[in-house]
Amino acid sequence: MNTMIQTKNLTKRYKDFIAVDDLSLHVQEGSIYGFLGPNGAGKSTTMKMLLGLTKPSTGSFVINGKMFPEERVAILKEIGSLIEAPAFYGNLTGRENLDIIRHILELPQSAVDEALEIVGLSEFGNRLAKKYSLGMKQRLGLASALIGKPPILILDEPTNGLDPAGMHEMRNLVKSLPQMYNCTVLISSHLLSEIELIADDIGILNHGVMLYEGSLHDLRQTAIQKGYEANNLEDMFLSMIEQDNAARKKRAVI
């Protein structure tokens, strides 16, 4: 299996603050990679670096065999993304917003209809975006990421604003994407129970440092060996974060 996204010692500093610290990440082709961590752990900053939205301080990364920044434009053509709250032109319809992206990517008109259908917005495509609910805006954001069926999807909290039924539908959709479109998904979420149901591999980040990377099965074995709670992903995650925070406090005192 090929490594679709690989970072090497990726670091982002803001003056005296290190948001991402010497990160080495490996996302396998055709997989769903759950990128986890508490607020401020560095997940969104990492995703922004992969998308060229913020410049790494040090380190490097390769996406689908292409090196950043030398092949930045070629990389971006292969990625669909949903980062933070999606922004749209409120005075345009959902369909018109997607049509702007379609023109930029030089895709056929059918790409807009396909994207709306995938996320369940076909009947609302002609409604003004400013009249969309928060959940509908999230769906439109996902449609904008999926348009053109890119081989890589980077999704930051895609279930924000969705009710339980919407979360269930989004989970099933994301889970089906690798097989349906032969794509690779890097997804962050605070809903660990959702990630546990869809992810092939997990990366756990705390204070910009990768605490664990690997399969859920191996994470469970690691948790058992270290005496963590191992009943579910949330228990393992919290145990790992708490131990790391305690170790940091101890080092700070010393």
Brief rundown of the structure:
This protein is of the alpha/beta class. The protein has helices at 43-50, 72-76, 94-105, 110-118, 134-146, 164-181, 192-198, 216-226, 233-253; strands spanning 3-14, 17-23, 26-28, 32-36, 58-63, 66-67, 79-82, 152-156, 184-188, 201-206, 209-215. A hairpin with a 2-residue loop joins strand 10 (201-206) and strand 11 (209-215).
How would you characterize the overall build of this protein?
The structure is a single chain. With 254 residues, this protein is of the alpha/beta class. The chain has nine helices and eleven strands. It has a six-stranded mixed beta sheet, sandwiched between helices. A hairpin with a 2-residue loop joins strand 1 and strand 2. Helix 3 (94-105) crosses helix 4 (110-118), helix 6 (164-181) packs parallel to helix 7 (192-198) and helix 8 packs across helix 9 (233-253). It is globular and about 60 Å long. The relative contact order is 0.16.
